[in-house]
Write a structure and sequence with these properties.
Number of helices: 13
Number of domains: 2
Strand order of the largest sheet: 5-15-21-20-19-18-17-16
Distance between the termini: 84 Å
Radius of gyration: 25 Å
CATH superfamily of the largest domain: NAD(P)-binding Rossmann-like Domain
Structural class: alpha/beta
Number of strands: 21
CATH class of the largest domain: Alpha Beta
CATH topology of the largest domain: Rossmann fold
Helix content: 25-40%
């Protein structure tokens, strides 16, 4: 019997992942990756694994034994009790860990679900810029990447289409700003699933970015009208020349009750025409056949069916763990020729000088740094460098002690300095830190101080680069004067 290929599927319990899982098990074995995968039951061709992609170690273990990997991850929803980060910086960490883990495990191909990138990429929205950056990072370590780029996916869950349906349901009349006349290329969920499935193991598509779309190019206004018709509603619409994207995102968030972390980036992207470009399309997978109305009807029917099942089911939805943890991520620019390992070491020295005499930092030969407040005998924080998990482009320090940290058995509190591949940008990230201070005091003191310190460090590095540039410019002139 021929050995079945093994596919690692991220986001397997999510909107697209759960549907794709059903399609893949017919011909392959699937490693289904989810944050709470260990609580799910395995089946003949599905092995569930818990995987936290913020952890490189967890990502490496998650991809063990896989031939191919499907990346369906997006970090718009925060996963810690307190998140101090832009979604694009969190997305970058997730993608970088995944790409490193894929390289280590010898993954033959990564299939990545992204958004259509407009021809004019000079002023992309944050959402689309992030999607493009993730695509580059996924391929930065040598694993071939096939990117499937779609506009609005018409399905029962997800993000964009449910927001559209809520607007139609809740408003008897709609004032439609300019962005609702922007063209997009909706595609049915089942057509997206077919494109993803046909891309796995397809050497012809290896290393390519493929646009996909349905049979119709439409405006958001046209989609709203047709969705209203499917619902049997007679929704009146009025075009208005005002209402900026900034006002629109607030309006949409209020009407649909969608989290700002999801609604804002998506609305910001609506200024771009999201239409599949012919030169980026593939005859085998790009051309979805399901008309918009048919896809919308299916999505709405499935949504109603799921609501009825949830009402009759006694099982409760998954609850948050209740752990008072922190994730904080900031992006800095490194001086030319410097790397993440330098940034970590330099940060410890800089912080000691910045906070004198109120704070001192002591480091030993094994790069264990202890932070002491003025007059305190015990350290408030202890960071231990992890040489076996670090390299020149990633310096990792575990939080191993200190009166300001709650240290628990099996805890993975850590701070890392991670250089973005092929750039001088660097991510400084704190993960799974549990403060020992009462939560409200931590929020009002230590959390805010950390953001200020990160800002000052960013400014310090920029000033350092300015001085270096000035020295380079003035150096030759001074030598010439001296020779004369």
């Amino acid at each position: 019997m021929e050995k079945r290929e093994v596919i690692a599927l991220t986001g397997a319990s999510g909107y697209i992942g759960n549907n794709l899982l059903q399609k893949l098990t017919g011909y392959s074995d699937v490693i289904a990756l989810s944050r709470n995968g260990d609580s799910r039951e395995n089946s003949d061709h599905v092995e569930w694994r818990s995987c936290d992609l913020y952890s490189l170690d967890s990502a490496e273990k998650g991809l063990e034994g896989a031939d191919y990997a499907v990346y369906l991850v997006h970090s718009m929803m925060p996963s810690a009790k307190l998140t101090q980060a832009k979604f694009e910086d969190m997305d970058l960490i997730l993608a970088d860990n995944f790409a490193r883990a894929a390289k280590k495990n010898g993954i033959k191909q990564i299939i990545y679900m992204s958004g259509i990138i407009p021809e004019d990429t000079e002023e992309l929205s944050r959402h689309l810029e992030s999607r493009l950056e993730v695509e580059k990072v996924l391929g930065a370590y040598g694993t071939p990447v096939t990117t499937i780029r779609a506009g609005l996916i018409v399905g029962p869950k997800g993000s964009s289409f449910p927001i559209l349906t809520k607007l139609v349901k809740r408003l008897p009349a709609m004032l439609l700003p300019k962005w609702t006349r922007t063209k997009t290329h909706p595609i049915a969920l089942k057509d997206v699933l077919t494109a993803l499935k046909k891309s796995i193991g397809n050497k012809r598509l290896s290393g390519k970015s493929i646009d996909v779309g349905g049979p119709e190019v439409m405006t958001y206004k046209e989609m709203m009208i047709q969705t209203a018709e499917v619902m049997g509603r007679n929704t009146r619409t009025f075009d208005v020349p005002f209402m900026t994207v900034t006002l629109s995102r607030l309006w949409v968030s209020l009407i649909t009750q969608s989290p700002k972390s999801i609604a804002y980036p998506l609305i910001e992207s609506l200024k771009h025409p999201m239409v599949a470009q012919k030169e980026n399309m593939d005859d085998e997978i790009s051309y979805g056949r399901t008309p918009f109305k048919e896809a919308a009807k299916y999505a709405l029917d499935e949504e109603e069916k799921e609501k009825k099942e949830q009402k009759s089911s006694k099982s409760s939805s998954s609850k948050q763990s209740g752990i008072a943890d922190v994730r904080s991520v900031q992006r800095i620019l490194l001086p030319e020729g410097k790397d993440a390992d330098w940034a970590g070491d330099h940060y410890m020295n800089w912080l000691s000088k910045l906070a004198r005499p109120f704070l001192r930092v002591e480091a030993d030969s094994s790069r264990v740094s202890r932070f002491y407040l003025f007059g305190w005998e015990k350290p408030i924080m202890e960071l231990s460098y992890a040489p076996d998990r670090s390299s020149s482009n990633r310096a990792l320090y575990y939080i191993t002690g200190g009166s300001f940290a709650e240290i628990v058995e099996g805890g993975r509190g850590r701070i890392e300095f991670r250089q973005i591949p092929d750039t001088q940008e660097c991510i400084i990230a704190i993960h799974e830190y549990r403060p020992s201070l009462p939560w409200i005091i931590y929020r009002l003191s230590q959390a805010k101080i950390h953001i200020i310190v990160m800002y000052l460090y960013k400014r310090h590095l920029l000033n350092l680069m300015d001085k270096t540039d000035e020295h380079k410019q003035n150096g030759p002139v001074k030598r010439i004067v001296h020779m004369n």
